[in-house]
Design brief:
The structure is a homodimer. Chain A is of the alpha/beta class. In chain A, 43% of the residues lie in helices and 12% in strands. In chain A, strand 1, helix 1 and strand 2 form a beta-alpha-beta unit. The complex binds manganese (II) ion (4 copies).
Chain lengths: 197, 197
């Protein structure tokens, strides 16, 4: 049975990239999944998708009736999730936020760590399953880490985020600082900040 | 800051063994933790502790004021946990149950899998950190898997539980079937069942 993988509403780069990366991993492991989004990507995310030649994921608002089983990344709170989250089965959860207002009817696979970005955790999932990360997926994951940590400047940044980002930059074939600044500049985040200043 | 590690109220063998095993792992990794219990062990668990020369963990009912940070194993629901669970910080959660009535104020490390026993998941934590499992800890973990899966007969048993149990039996130096039947016989579970029959 095909599952959809998605991040939170008003998706940021981590919500989109983590869905794409985890969906890719699950498919490599023999499951059938599709990365979708609960909203249209912002300018920063569009820049990253375009840079690594990845299509914008389609937007969904409900899982049922097609997808009784879903996978959550980069969020767990029901109010940030798909409309009918209470009526579907969550089989996997990969996240770096506190747990709140999240309940399942069945045991599930969950991997949470107190790190700066969901894609840092997903890197460890690739390692655990010994699946190689293709360059374009590595590029998206790196974009998510840069976005969530504001190029390693946010207080939530951990050593592991930095180590993983270095490895991803190498696989993606980009310079972390050069690409990162370009991506943040392209995004609404920095644009807004600059406008405010 | 020292943390306590505990399973659910009315502890079964998994609740006690998972606390002991995860506490051992965390201590090896440089943290200071103590495995405690939210109640006295049952006859089956006492048999396992005695067989592997492990002391019965002390019983606690509250974490505060000594332990503002705690680690949960083999449960997550507040009503199954320590009395003041809502007032303390959960830093780690290792479990194989559905998530319900569990909320944290901060991001945490969580590893949940839909397998038959928490100790199966903890085996993977040892692997991940490349920490060797001593024989007595392996014996307790094996006891938990045998207990939760009723010697691999319960419908919740997975292939992974069986694989991990085999490896643990080798480390512990016991025959899984022989030891398992003895332990289950010593326990209240089978004693009750036999009495009913
Ligand atoms: Mn996000
Ligand atoms: Mn994130
Ligand atoms: Mn239990
Ligand atoms: Mn259990």
């Amino acid at each position: 049975m095909k599952k959809i993988v998605f991040g939170h509403r008003n998706p940021d780069t981590d919500a989109i990239a983590a869905a794409k990366a985890y969906s890719y991993l699950k498919n490599q492991l023999g499951e059938e999944t599709e990365a979708v989004a609960l909203g249209t990507p912002n300018e920063e995310t569009k820049y990253a998708l375009n840079y690594f030649n990845e299509p914008v994921p389609r937007v969904v608002t409900k899982a049922l009736p097609e997808y009784p089983e879903v996978i959550l990344v980069d969020h767990n709170e029901a109010q940030q999730s798909i409309e009918d989250i209470r009526e579907v089965t969550v089989t996997d959860l990969i996240d770096h936020h506190r747990i709140a207002n999240f309940e399942t009817a069945f045991p599930l696979y969950a991997h949470l760590e107190p790190v700066g970005c969901t894609c840092t955790i997903i890197f460890r999932e690739f390692e655990r399953h010994a699946v190689e990360i293709p360059a374009h997926i590595a590029g998206l994951m790196l974009s998510a880490i840069i976005s969530d940590t504001l190029l390693f400047k946010s207080p939530t940044t951990t050593e592991m985020d930095q180590l993983v980002a270095e490895k991803l930059a190498e696989i993606a074939g980009v310079d972390c600082q050069v690409y990162g600044l370009e991506m943040l500049k392209a995004g609404t985040n920095l644009a807004t900040k600059t406008a405010e200043e």
